[in-house]
Automatic annotation (TrEMBL):
Pfam families: MmgE_PrpD_C, MmgE_PrpD_N
Gene3D superfamilies per UniProt: 2-methylcitrate dehydratase PrpD
Family: Belongs to the PrpD family.
Segments forming domain MmgE/PrpD N-terminal: 52-291
SUPFAM superfamilies per UniProt: 2-methylcitrate dehydratase PrpD (SSF103378)
Protein name: 2-methylcitrate dehydratase PrpD
MF annotations from Gene Ontology: lyase activity
Domain of life the protein comes from: Bacteria
Domain MmgE/PrpD C-terminal: 311-473
Amino acid sequence: MPPIDRRSMLLASATIPLTLAGFRATDVAQAAESASSAKPPVAPEPQDITRTLAHYIVAAKYDDLPPKVRKEGVRTLFNWVGVAIGGSHHETVDIAVSALAPFSGPPQANLLGRRERFDVMNAAFLNGVSSHIFDYDDTHLKTIIHPAGPVASAILALAEMQPVNGKDFLNALVLGVETECRIGNAVYPNHYDVGWHITGTTGVFGAAAAVGKLIGLNEQQMIWALGLAASQPVGLRESFGSMNKSFNLGRAASNGLFAAILASKNFTSSDKMIEAKRGWANTLSTKQDYTQITDGLGQHYEAALNTYKPFACGIVMHPAIDAAIQLRNENRLIPDQIARVELKVNPLVLELTGKKTPRDGLEGKFSIYHATAVALVEGAGGEKQFSDRAVRDPVIVDLRGKVVPIVDPMIKPEQVDMTIVLKDGRSLHKYIEHAIGSLEVPMSDQALEKKFADLADGTIPAQQARHVMDLCWGVEDLTNAGDIAKNAAAA
């Protein structure tokens, strides 16, 4: 038998149609093409989310606001002004003022609690930083957004340059809060879980909407303002515990103002920047529920769900502080009596506030160990309890080492189950279902006034603080809401 010529066989095979399991090569190719086209159908791109929201913002009137929503809007403003005055002389603000002063434009707007005046853009930024530096501002609990900072900082600065009556001001504030919280609802918690600081990333929408409302944007311009806002997400959770965290709110305020001003001159954007395939929501989150943005506009209000902090720190630590203060006061506890403090908490508590050895007051705001210890030692959780002094106090440091958080997924983020074991063998127990400051146990107007007065103490005289409080409570009757900023500045 002659030897096999492999080269001839290969050449010959090239002229014979290839088969696979009885199919010609062309059949196989067609089958592959058909298989690749049989992918699951892609959900249709949601229609006109940005436009629907813009239409609502442009059309909404003060008279449309229910009394309860107006009242909560006033409380939101009141609380924000207090925390902005209180934070105005923190080192963070001093540094920012010093850094930006050489670059500021005309002195158009006041800094609350300070003597300096800046251009509107920089004043919005600096008041935003000031209002958040203590982590003492308002909170939309469904999303952990701090709504007032970006919105109020932007429109109050604007109101000093362009007079705005109180009713229009309050309407814009509510609309801004409504905008950022609804957008936050659409992507929370996935957006937050991946690492975005949701107040910065959604606050820019609120600021753009509120400023746009006050300067009279039409529907198309409002769409562009929201689109330009979408292009400026700011803030990562890695910044928590540093000056950078309050930077995020300040930047959201100035970015939103920037977006609305540009849109007023017909600086364009995509008409679908929120909902498009490569828009804000799809780029920044794995969850998109656009019904949260558009359903019930003008019928139910996220702005009515705002809450105010009785304690100057991360909201997830409030139940522990509440429990610690109650046990301390009920039993007249002193630190030397305590052997161990056990608290069952939701996993989110340690994820957000697990700093065992905070180095300064800002880090203390993200330490469940410090928050619990200082509440037991001093019976409070205000700004002074999250200062550098408190974080370094030897008695508090010692007790901090006795705090033992235990993660329990059955405990909700707004709850805590605390047991204090005393050196004499006794155990004291407190379970908090809803902490003070929650929707279920809200701060009263009187409690907000005390908080405001405490924050203003040492920054502006008591008589001046009282006058500013009265202006805030009566904002709806003001000829120009900018008078609040003028009267809240240091003499």
